[in-house]
Amino acid sequence: MIDRHTLIEGYYKMVKLVVSKSPLARMNPNSISFGASIIGLLSAIFFLFGHSAIAGVILLLSGILDTLDGTVARLGERSSKFGATLDSSLDRYVEMFVFMGIAYH
Q1: Which residues contact 45 (CB under 8 A, 6 or more apart)?
Q2: Tens digit of pLDDT per residue, the chain (105 long)?
Q3: Contacts of 1 (CB under 8 A, 6+ apart)
Q4: What gap in Å lies between CA 9 and CA 11, rounded to an integer?
């Protein structure tokens, strides 16, 4: 059985490989953070109106994009405390709106 640590490590190796070979590597990591957040907010709207399956898929996409921004920053040597704080803050707002959408529905 594969343990959690091995699974996560494998996922991030795959993300690093995909990012390094794609146009994403040239993007601004903060732009990716904002894009992931907008998609996360779209998920919250779908939860609000009771479309849970679609909302879940959209939220998964948002989460995948959210893992890309840090990888892009590290690979391009553009990591910063501001970027890390921005990403973390946007993540908390998306979580809040998703939970509000679920709770309201």
Answers
A1: 55, 101
A2: 778 889 989 988 998 998 888 888 889 999 999 999 999 999 999 999 999 999 999 999 999 999 899 899 988 889 999 999 999 999 999 999 999 999 999
A3: none
A4: 5
Angle at 74 between CA 72 and CA 75, to 5 degrees: 65
Q: How far apart are CA 19 and CA 72, in angstroms?
A: 7
DSSP collapsed to 3 states, 73-98: HHHCCCCCHHHHHHHHHHHHHHHHHH
Query: Encoding tokens for residue 59?
Result: 């939220």
Q: Which two tokens stand for residue 13?
A: 């190796």
Which amino acid appears at position 102 of this protein? I
pTM of the model: 0.87
d(CA 39, CA 65): 9
- CB-side exposure of 77: number of CA atoms within 13 Å? 0
Phi and psi at residue 28, to the nearest 5°: -75, 125
